[in-house]
Predict the structure of ABC transporter domain-containing protein.
Amino acid sequence: MESRVAIRTEKLNFIYNKGQDNEFQALVNVDLEIRREEFVIIFGPSGCGKSTLLHVIAGLEKPNRGKVIINDKDLLKLDKNEFANFHRRQIGIIYQAYNLIHTLTVLNNVALPQIFLSVDRGEREKKSLELLSRFAIEKHARNLPTELSGGQQQRIGIARAIINDPDIILADEPVGNLDSATAKNVLDILKDLNKKEKKTVILVTHNPENLSYGDRVIYMKDGMITKETAKHYKITVTKEKGAQEAPMTQLEQVMQAYQGLKSEQINILIMPFKATAFAHHFLSKRNLDETKIFEDNMQRRLMKQMDSEDFFKILNRPFQQGGVGLDKRTAEKIVSRINKIIILAYFLAKKYRQRKDSDGKHIKITEEEKAKKLMSYLLYICQEKELALPERKEKERLEVAVLDRLANQITKSELFKQLDLPYKEGGAGLHAKTARAITEEMELMLITLYGIKP
């Protein structure tokens, strides 16, 4: 019976320049198991060993120690001819730099792997044209690769990788040189290959924006697998009350992957997530281009590269002139809310006040002070949205639940349950709309807090 495991590594170790002054161990006892038809992402900062691991799995590098088992075959026990035949039929590789032969036409680049399988010219050209048509580049079949855009060249690379119908697709930073729109197109192609054609896909990336495509994420650091997560980061709407878990969960995964970095470095890495969360929170019924403008400038606002006045101008400016196209009142309201969130987030992140006591020491900010500020803001939001305000006894339970969420002792869905649960049953007894508004506001506050230096 065929194993459900497509790839397995055992105690993989790989050392560059072994025995030399610049010796470097890129992989340290890596154990990995990937099931058939999985879309797995290997994720981590530059130099963590993720590309080396992919190259060892592909057979492009030989480990110093360990095993690589692919489709029940031990790669290290295959002779040269067995390995070449196995590799051509079972594995397709996509590179960041495309690795196309610039002196061959697009058609011949795609057909190249078929030549090594001795497929006759007519059949291989027919299959190549079918793939080029599928990826909307058939009209460029007789062009040279250098005459095409980066996105088109990467699609050629994908077509070449799958022309022999391999079971496994290995993609090494395939969208690293592409703009966001083209990158999405390439990632969608890989997703289709996984979902529709049941290919096992392994994608190496350092970009946290790509994590949502995976069924599973393998986190690497210093040549070791530090963590694995499955499906928590996929952007889905939960059944309960339509609440979204994804933005916060994605951030948690990224933060843990980069926990060795300084808070300032982490803050920069997760800035795209923060901007997307703000766009999701404040924008509705805006097209993708307008949302992109908002997100780009929201990043600048969060990084203190833009003041609130200039941010307002961008929001209020017509789309045709490079703005988001919001009316003046809406733009003012959003800017005011965002200013309050940023100010409060920095206050919550602080440990001490600027001023000093009589002994010359900075005065510590108490948890009670933070709770009071946070509660004041949340009640202000409820009032602004004309929602039912909690009574005194309800406020006490609201504060407890909110502080538990702030300390990450409960999840987003658990916070909502506590706020929505009737008072007699131990909850805060808030109106459902009020509970939902406070829950969403808390998530945005937590996202803003991530990576801020105390």
